[in-house]
Write a structure and sequence with these properties.
Length: 270
């Protein structure tokens, strides 16, 4: 399916500084960027960087003087989301995993899987099938954590979320990741554009590594899985931030859209 995505952001730059953005749609075997544009007003030097952790298309803007800077990204993306039966997938032993996957087993800043080991194994450790294990914990999060816009902040972790039992999409994703890792299932953070998300915004969910493949899960169930356009993946939100500001730069506004460019869209949820 084809989607038109866009992000418009405005920043109040109060002195020379640097802005690092992560809003470009990824190019993957299942996601083709057919066309895209990036405009910056006023124009400043832009450099695309290689991401060390996860999958990211990062750009760096060197802003030489104070003023209002507007950034607009637009793209048409063809998302080849394939609906599969994953129930027959077997768990891969750690000794046979690609070394690049191992980092997604470790606790990270927002996903303290070591602190949730007992909870995860008490609730889901009895489930033998790894795919069923992740779908069950995803449903548990959806049932037991209340989605409340604006409740959490940049310091909220998976441990906080399971304690407070309330959060936003990034909190649902962090909790899903932490529980997976506590069950020895590699998991990573996913951020993207989301079709049918109201109001329009960037959306967070997670991917679990089962049977030698990354599989997408969304504990919020706010949007269909085949309506997500991937921007980035990483260990948690720290690796996939939409914007990092260095210097006296103030974020002032944002408008995010994801519209269907094809017809006959049939939403798919786990």
């Amino acid at each position: 399916m084809k989607f038109n995505v866009s992000a418009e952001m405005t920043y109040d730059v109060r002195c020379a500084g640097t802005l690092v953005l992560n809003v470009h749609a990824l190019r993957t075997p299942a996601q083709a960027v057919l066309e895209e544009t990036l405009s910056i007003d006023p124009y400043v030097k832009v450099e695309e960087l290689f991401a060390v952790n996860g999958e990211n298309r990062i750009i760096r803007l060197e802003i030489p003087e104070k003023g209002i800077v507007r950034v607009a990204y637009k793209a048409t993306v063809d998302n080849d989301f394939e609906i599969k039966d994953h129930t027959a997938r077997e768990e891969i032993m750690i000794g046979k995993m690609d070394p690049a996957i191992l980092t997604y087993l470790y606790p990270s800043r927002y996903c303290q899987s070591d602190k949730l080991f007992r909870l995860a194994n008490n609730l889901f450790g009895h489930i033998a099938n790894p795919y069923e294990k992740v779908t069950t914990l995803t449903a548990w999060i959806n049932k037991n954590v209340e989605y409340r816009s604006g409740f959490s902040n940049a310091q909220t972790s998976a441990y906080d979320t399971v304690t407070e039992q309330v959060g936003v999409c990034r909190d649902f994703a962090h909790l899903g990741i932490a529980l997976c890792r506590a069950l020895t299932i590699p998991a990573r953070y996913f951020t993207g554009y989301a079709y049918q998300l109201k109001p329009g915004d960037f959306h967070a969910c997670f991917e679990a590594y089962i049977g030698d493949e990354w599989i997408l899960f969304d504990a919020t169930r706010l949007v269909p899985l085949n309506g997500l356009i991937k921007i980035a993946t990483g260990r948690d939100a720290a690796d996939t931030a939409i914007a990092n500001m260095f210097g006296d730069i103030l974020f002032t506004s944002m408008l995010v859209k994801c519209d269907l460019a094809d017809q006959n869209f049939v939403p798919y949820y786990h």
